[in-house]
Amino acid sequence: MQLSPSIVGSRVPEHDALVERGRLRFFAKATGQTDPLYTDLDAAEAAGHRDLPVPPTFFFCLDMDRPNPSGFYTELGIDPRSLLHGEEEFTYHAMAYAGDTLHFRTTVTDVYAKKGGALQFLVRTTEVTRDGEPIATLTNNVVIRQLPGASA
């Protein structure tokens, strides 16, 4: 199945995610973060933060909190087994903290193919806001590989 350029501009259903301290601490531990800024409220406040700050890349985890995160791909006719993580890019505009409710708005911004169509790429851009204020822009590139036995 070839991705049509007509899907550029398509949107993933928007969603909100609450940033929870426990998840921030778990993420910091799981990713080997040793700075107490990300796990200890007193350390975060001593550094001038109002709560535990959201560590880099955690926005991707919050983006996956949307209902049926692979539903967008199946609606496009993409077999989730064919998806590979390509790359991510994060642009930060403001700090986010535990207790914040963040809004995620995702748009398909590009599609292209390589290797004669055996590898297709779908690029999504997600705007993360808090009460309308820009917090971060996430760019996610997903590789869609041709599964064995599937026709191009």
Describe what this molecule looks like in 3D:
InterPro entries: FAS1-like_DH_region, HadA-like, HotDog_dom_sf. It holds the Pfam family FAS1_DH_region. Residues 7-137 form the FAS1-like dehydratase domain. This is MaoC family dehydratase N-terminal domain-containing protein. The chain is α+β, with helices and mostly antiparallel strands and 152 residues long. The chain has helices at 21-30, 41-46, 58-63, 71-75; strands at residues 11-18, 83-92, 101-114, 119-130, 133-145. The chain has a single domain (5-145), classed as Roll (Thiol Ester Dehydrase, Chain A), CATH 3.10.129.10. The model has no long low-confidence stretch (mean pLDDT 92).
Give the helices and strands as they follow along the chain.
EHHHHEEEE
Give the strand order of the largest sheet, numbering strands 1, 2, ... along the chain.
Answer: 1-3-4-5-2
According to DSSP, the number of beta strands is 5
Reported for the largest beta sheet, the result is:
5 strands, antiparallel
CATH topology name, in short, is Thiol Ester Dehydrase, Chain A
Oligomer: single chain
Q: Which band does the percent of strand residues land in? A: 35-45%
Domain module count: 1
Low-confidence stretches: none
- Residues in helices, as a percent range: 10-25%
Summed up, the helix count is: 4
Radius of gyration: 18 Å
For this structure, what is the CATH class?
Alpha Beta
- What's the name of the CATH homologous superfamily? Hotdog Thioesterase
Architecture per CATH nomenclature, i.e. the level-2 architecture: Roll
Mean pLDDT: 92
Termini separation: 6 Å
Protein structure class = alpha+beta
Shape label: elongated
